[in-house]
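Many groups now describe folds with learned vocabularies. In that spirit, our science desk offers one protein's residues alongside their backbone shape tokens.
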Amino acid sequence: MDVVVNCMGPFYKYEPKILKTTKETGKNYVDICDDYNVTLKMFELDEKARETGISALIGMRSSPGASNLFVKFCSDYLLEETESVDIYHAHGGEPYEGPGVIKHRIHSMLIDIPVFDNGKLRSVKFLEESGESLIEEAEFPVLGKFKVYPYPHPETITLPGYIKGLK
């Protein structure tokens, strides 16, 4: 094999171990991790991965992944200036969710949630006033209006590194 494609969750439990093992075997790597705190750990492994000559693409699904690419494309080619980015995603109603997804959601509600606000990174808590103050209602085309909540996805820590001037 040439590439390891990792879709195994919960990501906070397995992701760094799998990337470390992949690096040790000299294989290229792609994952769909959407845990921001794990993304930070993966960034710490970047230099070591580069030393071995492997490529590691992390967070390559709809969010993060496509969301990062769409925002960067719009910022570079469609907009004169990009000051703010709000990413909402709606899910739920699936007939079945595996234990990895359930553990991921619980984990995400208990950890600090990064919020990039006024050019600075700060943290809020999902179940505390700091997180509740960010709940709002958003209009989704075709679907209607839904409440949206702060959630610890990596776009908050990745996009400011690639789009200058975000507030």
Remarks:
- The longest strand covers residues 112-117.
- The first helix runs from residue 11 to 25.
- The chain has a mean pLDDT of 87.
